[in-house]
Structures are given as structure tokens and as C-alpha cells.
Design brief:
2 domains, 18% strand, alpha/beta, Aspartate Aminotransferase, domain 1, Aspartate Aminotransferase, domain 2, binds pyridoxal-5'-phosphate
């Protein structure tokens, strides 16, 4: 079988036959990429404004990432945390410098990073003689992952159905500082917050909200956990999403963009929490292995050398402006636009089915995701070019106008 379209069709058939059917992949198979472009096995080109769910910070096949992974693979891939490895120690140092945190625990995914945050705060209060501090305050519409702890913190019922009972987490409306204050009491261990709710529909925290959470935590002796899994590593135009508000958390979760697509997550914390998880209390075989750490170091170095933070802020504004312009021409189809940096959304009106729109855009060569009930999320690689942003906007408008 040599016809690429036939090869693709056969792969799709086997994917549907052998893979566990918990996802709903469309009938295409991604073959390769370059920067913010992807090609499927049949040779069709896509503008990737999806980036593997806001992951591929350096886009696809970035030479610095490819080199780092290839070179590391010829030295050592994995040794476990029984030993230090060079890349991991270097990465921990760079991450602490960039975030102002003191300690890093490495995981393999976002949900594992959140799990580590939750276990850290729980054990911290247990070890410091306040075992009654068990409760976590999180937010309606939030997403924190799919392990049972992270799922308990997630504030969207659709992810939890059939998995209860889950650990007790109090959910309050996002952005409502009054509701948080009312929910606070001496049994609260932590507030867990996304600076922009990503999966919930790309909702930036309202002005002053994160600062108020910091104040409430300080007042009550609770800890502030920032879930920066989607917003971190430059996605919003600053290294952390919290940096827009100048608010420092006590604990931070990172993943997604950190490895540029190589699986790695991290829980970072202040020195005061470094005794909460002593040897044996928490760990993972793969976390922070040499290959993943080399990839993450390459991502962080490239963000600096290519000045991607500054560019992300400017490109984010270009994308946001373009989406707002389209909205002004199609007010019936798009009810609002929102976002920060290269995490932007066009919120579709009730007349437009978001999944159908996503699928039409895909047919037209533009990959985006649906976030929340009705937001089309645009989260391209940080290396996306101005021309590619303009092209994506044109495709979006063409599809909206029904011309495609
Ligand atoms: N937290 C946030 C804010 C996320 O956006 C996600 C994933 O979308 C997660 C946690 C879970 O990360 P992972 O899918 O790597 O487990």
C-alpha cells in the first residue's frame, strides 16, 4: 500500500480497532511537523493552533530541542532518582531562578504535579501539628487533572461522573473573592488556583483576585498553590501566569510546555515546605529523568535565546486583536473574545456548535481546541510567526463566513 491516503485510512482503522476508545480522534494521523505547522500521513498541511493542548512551546522539530534530546539519548536516558543526573540538577536550578521558588520535585505529567502539591500541603500541616487543616478551596469550572486527588480539585462535574466519592474540596465561583473569604476557616490547608482557567474556557482571573487570594492565605495561615500547568513556561507572555499580577504562590505546578512535548511536570515550593515530604514519603521512577530534563533545559534556554516571552506578548496581542476584529464582523457567531498572551479564545454564540466548528476548521487546515462549553481555544506554539497568525485568522474568518 503506497498511496498516502490509503496508508492513513488503514492507520485510522487500526487505531479505532486497537486503541482504548476513551478519546475521539478524527480520521487523520499526524506524521510530522515544523514550527507551528503539522502534516498528516496523507500529506495535508495544518496550522497548529492547538500545540498538543498548549504543550509544544517551541513548535515541532525545533533544532535546539531535537539536538538536546538526540545528544542526551547518546549519553544516558534514565537513572531514576536513586542518583542525581546532570541535566536534572541544572534544570532544577534554572527553574528555581525563573520562578523565585527554592525546591523542585519532578513528575511526568500535570496531574502528577498537582497530586504532589496536594500531598505536600497535606503532609506539611500534618507534620507541623495542624492535622485538622485538610480542606482545599478550589474553583468552579477549574481543571487540575485526572488522578483522584487532582480530579477532586477539578471544578467541572463532567470529569468526575462515576468516579466518586472523592476527597473533600470546596469549590467556589472563580473570581469571587467574597465567596473565598466566606469559605475560609482554620481547617483550610490551601487555595488552588489557575491564573487563567484554561480547560474551563480560557478565563483570565479578574484584576485583583489573585492578590486577594494571597492576602486571604496569609491572613489564615493557608498556602497558595498556583496551577501553572497551562499558563506557565511563557504561554501568557510572562514566565508564569501569576507574574501578570505580581503574586507569588507558595507552591507551583508546571507541566505541558516545560518539556516542549517530552513528558515532564514539576512541583515547586518554598524552602519552608522542604521538610514536608521526607525520603520515602513521595516519589516516582521516571520523574526528572535525564532525557526529559535535557528537553526542558533546551526549552528554557531557547525561550531566553529567542526572546520568546517578549514575542509571545506581542504575538498574543496580534492574535487577540485579530479575533476581536473578526468578532466585530461576525457578532452573531462570536459572543466574546478573551485570553492572555498566546492563550486566546473566541467564545461562540449559542447558534454555533463548537465541535462542528472545530471540525470545519480542521478540514480547512487549522487545528484549534474547544475549551469549556463554547470557547474555541487558540494556543499556538510560542514560535508561531506573525504570518501564520494572520493566515490562521483568515482561515477562521473564511470558515465562519461559510465560504469553506
Ligand atoms: N492543570 C491544568 C491547568 C491543565 O490545563 C491540565 C491539563 O490540561 C492539567 C492540570 C493536567 O495535566 P496533564 O494532562 O498533563 O495530566
Amino acid at each position: 500500500m503506497t498511496n498516502p491516503a490509503d496508508v492513513q485510512a488503514a492507520l485510522v482503522e487500526n487505531g479505532r480497532r486497537y486503541l482504548y476508545p476513551n478519546y475521539r480522534q478524527p480520521a487523520l494521523v499526524i506524521d510530522r511537523g515544523e514550527g507551528a505547522l503539522l502534516w498528516d500521513v496523507a500529506g495535508k498541511r495544518y496550522l497548529d493552533f492547538f500545540a498538543g493542548i498548549a504543550v509544544s512551546a517551541l513548535g515541532h522539530a525545533h533544532p535546539a530541542l531535537a539536538r538536546a534530546v538526540a545528544e542526551q539519548a547518546t549519553r544516558v536516558v534514565h537513572v531514576s532518582n536513586y542518583f542525581f543526573n546532570t541535566q536534572n540538577v541544572r534544570l532544577a536550578e534554572v527553574l528555581c531562578r525563573k520562578t523565585g521558588m527554592d525546591r523542585v520535585f519532578f513528575s511526568n505529567s500535570g496531574t502528577e504535579a498537582i497530586e504532589a502539591c496536594l500531598k505536600l500541603v497535606r503532609r506539611h500541616f500534618w507534620a507541623s501539628g495542624q492535622p485538622e487543616r485538610l480542606r482545599v478551596i478550589a474553583f468552579e469550572n477549574s481543571f487540575h487533572g485526572r488522578t483522584l486527588g487532582a480530579l477532586a480539585a477539578t471544578g467541572q462535574g463532567k470529569y468526575k461522573e462515576g468516579f466518586g466519592p472523592l476527597p473533600n474540596v470546596t469549590h467556589v465561583p472563580y473570581g469571587d473573592a467574597r465567596a473565598v473569604a466566606d469559605a475560609m476557616s482554620a481547617d483550610v490547608a490551601a487555595i488552588l488556583v489557575e491564573p487563567v482557567q484554561g480547560e474551563g474556557g480560557v478565563l483570565p482571573a479578574p484584576p485583583g483576585f489573585l492578590r486577594e487570594l494571597r492576602r486571604l492565605c496569609d491572613e489564615q495561615g493557608a498556602l497558595l498553590i498556583a496551577d501553572e500547568i497551562q499558563t506557565g513556561i511563557g504561554r501568557t507572555g510572562t514566565f508564569l501566569g501569576m507574574d501578570h499580577d505580581g503574586v507569588k504562590a507558595d507552591v507551583i505546578a508546571l507541566a505541558k510546555g516545560l518539556g516542549g512535548g517530552i513528558p515532564i511536570g514539576a512541583m515547586l515550593c518554598r524552602e519552608a515546605l522542604s521538610g514536608a515530604l521526607p525520603p520515602g514519603s513521595h516519589g516516582t521512577t521516571f520523574g526528572g529523568n535525564a532525557l526529559a530534563s535535557a528537553a526542558a533545559l533546551a526549552v528554557l534556554e531557547t525561550i531566553d535565546s529567542e526572546r520568546l516571552l517578549e514575542q509571545t506578548a506581542a504575538k498574543g496581542e496580534r492574535l487577540a486583536r485579530g479575533l476581536a476584529d473578526i468578532r466585530s464582523r461576525y457578532p452573531k457567531a462570536i459572543s466574546s473574545c478573551r485570553g492572555r498572551g498566546l492563550l486566546q479564545a473566541a467564545v461562540l454564540s449559542a447558534e454555533v456548535d463548537p465541535r462542528q466548528m472545530m471540525s470545519k476548521l480542521q478540514d480547512a487546515g487549522l487545528l484549534v481546541t474547544v475549551a469549556g462549553a463554547s470557547a474555541l481555544r487558540f494556543s499556538p506554539p510560542l514560535v508561531v510567526s506573525d504570518a501564520q497568525i494572520d493566515e490562521a485568522l483568515q482561515v477562521f474568518e473564511r470558515v465562519l463566513s461559510g465560504a469553506v
